[in-house]
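Q: Joint fold for the lines below.
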Amino acid sequence: MFINWAKQEITLKIVYYGPGLSGKTTNLHFIYNKLDPSLRGNLVTLNTKEERTLFFDFLQLEFGKIKGKKPRFNLYTVPGQVFYAQSRKIILSGVDGIVFVADAQKDRMDDNLDTLLDLEENLITMGKTLETFPWVLQFNKIDLPNRINSSILQKNLNFLNVPQFESIATQGAGVFETLKSIINLVVTNIQGGV
Amino acid sequence: MNLEQGGNGQPIVLSGEMYKAISEVISELATKIRAKTIIFSDMNGHPITQRGTATDIDIPNLSALAAGDFSATAEIAKIIGEKEQFKFIFHEGEKFNAYLSNVGDNFLLILIFDSDAALGMIRIYTKRAIATLANVLENAKEKEEDSTSFVDVDFNKYLNQELDKAFSF
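A: Joint structure:
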């Protein structure tokens, strides 16, 4: 979080976290393509040659003045591949809220759980835990035939009962509902309580 | 003092007085070295103030990328056993050069200038400006402002109205 009293600006950082290929970048692409260009900046993507996220994606959103204050939301994704653990730590620095994008396919449950543990470990090094930090869950790819039932996803991943959303990020279903939810959580958190 | 915190998700709150003092230092540096762009940002890449002759540069994206660049380089320093992070990063281009330096632990100075500019002059004036900025940040007095008083209880309600408008397709 960064607050500039002179300019009445507040900047909040939201990070999309999750296993590789779960759809983090796809969320940002959909937001970028769908939102009015006056409300968002350019999308930065740092990809490998294989079009996988190498370091991060970045997109800034601005929604005009709210009661004289100018809120900005900087959206980042992390590289999901296990190999890029150090990069994820760097991107989490200064984070205000997290969207955990889980892959709803049957063969990805272990990856979801491993990545959630990875997130928890990183939060602990920042003096935070999943219980105390604003985050929401997105179960992505629910349109695929090999998807896991939502109740099982919920039981395994949402034991802390955070806001959860089903999504098809490629088509945009659930993308803005998730974004609105995390924005609300981080703003509530500034006001002193989640 | 919130400015002493930063990093690791702690809020950074910049008072009006601090902003003015920082902006003056950056303005002076921009004039002296005739920079295309100078950005003073926090370590997470939130631009705080910028000066320079360029009007066509995407400041938020440049800041975010420079902060990523600097953080990644700091990790490289750790991996190879440097006790301190590298003092600065210099990228040399055909038309422009980029120079990144930390200001204390929480802030970053990003300079973009012509590749034919005198490097000695750039280095000296930038080093002086960093020392002045560090001084400004260190001498900051306790401020009453904090993050919780920045937004009031209605803020979320009005923000949601804006979000609903923005997200209604």
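Q: Anything notable?
A: Chain A has five helices and eight strands. The mean pLDDT of chain A is 94.
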